[in-house]
Each structure stands twice: as structure tokens, then as C-alpha cells.
Write a structure and sequence with these properties.
145 residues; mainly alpha
């Protein structure tokens, strides 16, 4: 379990899940406070899904974060420089991301990551968001070693 200054991927900025976590990772990396095992996927994986959803290049988001501003201001910058998804598109995005790892093409990755983290027996961890929250100490561990 890791104690990091990263918010849950489920937390929303402007109604969009994961976006704030991506900003947290960028900011921590810039301060040399992001652990090396998180650096491998900067701009890839969920970061890449998020920036593709918003139609902005990841490194443009990094540059915008470095200019400063609130999370909401940076999200609106993405809307202005990429696209502004509709409420329905945001809902579909949120549900897609929230369920990643549950009976889809990354289920095996989730199983492997759970095993590596000593959580293979935890059946309530059935999505990547749940795994991330458990791995970072936000999901209760009652009844599990």
C-alpha cells in the first residue's frame, strides 16, 4: 500500500473522472515526488485515454499544468483547445473508465497487478479504479490480510 498525494481516479473535475489524478501525477513528477513505478506510464494508459477523449496532446496538458491554474481552469483549457464533450459523452466516458478491468481486455492485467500486490483473494477489487484505490490505501482492508 502506498501513501501518495494522488486523488482517487474516481474523483471528478468538471464532472470528468480521472482528469484530476492525471494532473496530480504531472505536478508530482515536476516536483520529483512521483515514485518511479508511476513514471513509466506518464502520458500512457489512462493518461492517454483521457487526453484522447479531450482531443488534446498529453504534453500540451503538461505544458498547461506548468503554467499554473486550478484544475477546472486546465480542464476548460482542454475543452477550448481540444473539444468540449457533451454531458452524455462525459457520462459514457466516466462509466467506461470506472469499469476498466471488469470483464474486458485488461482483466488479465488487473489479475496480475492484484497478485503482485498481494491482493489476489480480494474479490471486491474488480476494476482498475478499485485496485488503484486499494493499492493507495483508500479502499478498506477489513477481513483481508
Amino acid at each position: 500500500m502506498k501513501a501518495l498525494a494522488l486523488r482517487s481516479p474516481s474523483e471528478k473535475v468538471g464532472g470528468v473522472v480521472y482528469f484530476g489524478r492525471m494532473l496530480d501525477k504531472i505536478r508530482l513528477h515536476d516536483k520529483s515526488e512521483l515514485p518511479s513505478d508511476y513514471q513509466t506510464n506518464l502520458g500512457r494508459g489512462f493518461d492517454e485515454f483521457c487526453t484522447r477523449f479531450l482531443h488534446v496532446p498529453y504534453y500540451d496538458v503538461v505544458r498547461r499544468v506548468r503554467e499554473g491554474g486550478t484544475d477546472e481552469e486546465i480542464l476548460w483549457w482542454c475543452f477550448d483547445n481540444g473539444r468540449r464533450p457533451s454531458e452524455t459523452e462525459i457520462y459514457v466516458w466516466n462509466e467506461f473508465m470506472r469499469k476498466r478491468g471488469w470483464n474486458d481486455e485488461i482483466t488479465e492485467t488487473l489479475k496480475r497487478r492484484k497478485k503482485e500486490a498481494g491482493m489476489a483473494r480480494r474479490s471486491e477489487i474488480d476494476t482498475m479504479f478499485a485496485f488503484i484505490d486499494a493499492d493507495e490505501g483508500r479502499l478498506p482492508t477489513a477481513g483481508y490480510p
